Amino acid sequence: MSQVYLDYNATAPVRPEAIEAMTRVLGQVGNPSSIHAAGRAARAVVEAARNDIAALIGGPASTVIFTGGGTEANALAVDSAVATGSRRLLISAIEHDCVIETAKASGAAVEILPVTPDGVADLDWLKARLAAWDAADGRPFVALMLANNETGVIQPVLAASEIVRAAEGWLHVDAVQAAGKIMTDSRALGADTLAVSAHKLGGPQGVGALTFGPRATMVRTQHGGGQERGRRAGTENVAGVAAFAAAARAALSEPQIDPEPRDAVAERLKAAGAVVIAEGAPRLTNTLCVSTPGWSSDLQVMALDLAGFMVSAGSACSSGKVKASPVLAAMQLDDLAGSAIRVSGGWGTTPADWAAFADAWIAAHTSFVARRRAPAA
Ligand code: PLP
């Protein structure tokens, strides 16, 4: 049976360009901090990768800090803001757990920036909240992701940045899901800090980056050596960042994913009774979040898996976790959350994969409905 992977938002398959770069660099010895020839060669690999990531996320290469993934990049931004005087953090209701949990653990007060039922941050709320800001809370810090991992909804980050800037605040943007799919230039978006992760765009897992602008001061949270200009201690993941850069270059050279095959699937599922989440909002063209009342997410994921299609029930960023999606709850869609699945394609997905997925989903749904209707034996 052929297998179709449609869970790119959990992790994307590693691109051939990234595998080539990683294996090539793994074959070369050298610590970038060493001054001999091998060390200088490793340093050259890291700095070339930094230039490529700067092209992805904006800013001079000197403002790109390599990290051990998106989680660490987000945490570095939140912790730096708290260390430099933010005592109250406004975190959007749909942020990834790594942002929300880091904020809660930081010791600062945390307030949730609500979203509309379409999953878009409520900027009127933000404006009013910042207008009433208490100076005792220090510099306002706002976390608003660029695209949501579950729904694919693209957030009005540029408009948010104007509001945050007017309040002399710090806007942090988690662009982990957006990178490689839509524009993620931190300067064009008005982000003070912006985080990305290699494995969502076809690089390896465990590699990420944070960039920061002139209004953000980075404070090291990991102590040890002076790597990354003293901002993140630890020997650089030379092969990992080379592969990250190769994946980023490949992603930047591709046209945007055509939404048509995804939208055609949505129409077919809707005809069978499914509800497309956030259908009216701007969304990443690779993501389809769809709920079928009465058919639980877990049963759907299992039935599809048996048919050879890999999708996820809500956010699958921490595997095996089965809990109601806080993202859908924030959108006041609690009724739909237990029966929602996320289908996400990417660089290796073909229109035929999407069409075959719709066939499999319809077959599984038909047999689920028939079983439910059958009289108990
Ligand atoms: N932010 C978002 C929006 C994500 O979807 C993920 C997924 O894992 C992360 C952050 C965490 O990134 P990483 O897995 O690289 O730590």
TrEMBL record:
Q: Which UniProt keywords apply?
A: Iron, Iron-sulfur, Metal-binding, Pyridoxal phosphate, Transferase
Locate the transmembrane regions by residue number.
Answer: none
Question: What family does the database annotate?
Answer: Belongs to the class-V pyridoxal-phosphate-dependent aminotransferase family. NifS/IscS subfamily.
Which organism was this protein described from? Answer: Phenylobacterium conjunctum
User: InterPro entries this protein is in?
Assistant: Aminotrans_V_dom, Cysteine_dSase, PyrdxlP-dep_Trfase, PyrdxlP-dep_Trfase_major, PyrdxlP-dep_Trfase_small
- Reported cofactor(s): pyridoxal 5'-phosphate
Listed under catalytic activity are: (sulfur carrier)-H + L-cysteine = (sulfur carrier)-SH + L-alanine
Q: What role does it play?
A: Catalyzes the removal of elemental sulfur atoms from cysteine to produce alanine. Seems to participate in the biosynthesis of the nitrogenase metalloclusters by providing the inorganic sulfur required for the Fe-S core formation.
The UniProt record lists the Aminotransferase class V domain at: 4-347
Q: What is this protein called?
A: Cysteine desulfurase
